[in-house]
Amino acid sequence: MLKVLLSDIVEAMEMQNDLSCHYYHIPTGEIVFIRDDDFLHAESDNNLNDFADWEIESINKAKDIIGNNDYIELPTSFDIHEYRMMEKFCDTVPGETGEILYDSIQGSGAFRRFKNHIHRYGIEDKWYKYREDSYYEIAKEWCELNEIPFVDDRKKN
């Protein structure tokens, strides 16, 4: 089995959204991006002549993924849970600043307020390092769970 670079998995995880997902193809080590619409079209009887070439390619890839054990879905945004990541980060920030950060992530607009506060207190580098480390840990755990050999290729600071 090929070794996957953790940076490739992290990059795909960071690109996740509610309308798409990424899959790891075990035989080739390729990470495949698929839109939810591609799965809908793959499962329908729609005529593919109405689609652009790139869409047909993606729909055919979705058809290949359906019911194929050679593909494993990468962690989704629900698995990553960036809000929980922010909570854990707040616990690492000492004193009043940590308390202010924690209060800032309560309720609507939490992500915007959190971002404003990390910049206000000059700890954005610390947050982005914490976030990156968390993504790498999730990727590593995913590889281990799925018995996929990996290389931790992140740049050491």
Brief digest:
The protein has 157 residues and is mainly alpha-helical. Helices cover 56% and strands 11% of the residues. The chain is built from 8 helices and 5 strands.
Can you give a write-up of this model?
This protein is mainly alpha-helical and about 160 residues long. The protein folds into 2 domains: about 15-75, no CATH class; about 80-145, no CATH class. Helices cover about 55% and strands about 10% of the residues. It has 8 helices and 5 strands. The protein has helices at about 5-15, 35-45, 55-65, 75-80, 80-90, 95-105, 110-120, 125-145, and strands spanning about 5, 20-25, 30-35, 70-75, 150. The strands form 2 sheets. The protein has a 3-stranded antiparallel sheet with strand order 3-2-4, with helices on both faces. Strands 1-5 form a two-stranded parallel sheet. A hairpin with a 5-residue loop joins strand 2 (about 20-25) and strand 3. Helix 5 packs antiparallel against helix 6 (about 95-105), helix 5 packs across helix 8 (about 125-145) and helix 6 packs antiparallel against helix 7 (about 110-120). The longest helix has 22 residues, at about 125-145. It starts with a strand and ends in a 6-residue tail after the last strand. The relative contact order is 0.17. The mean pLDDT is about 90.
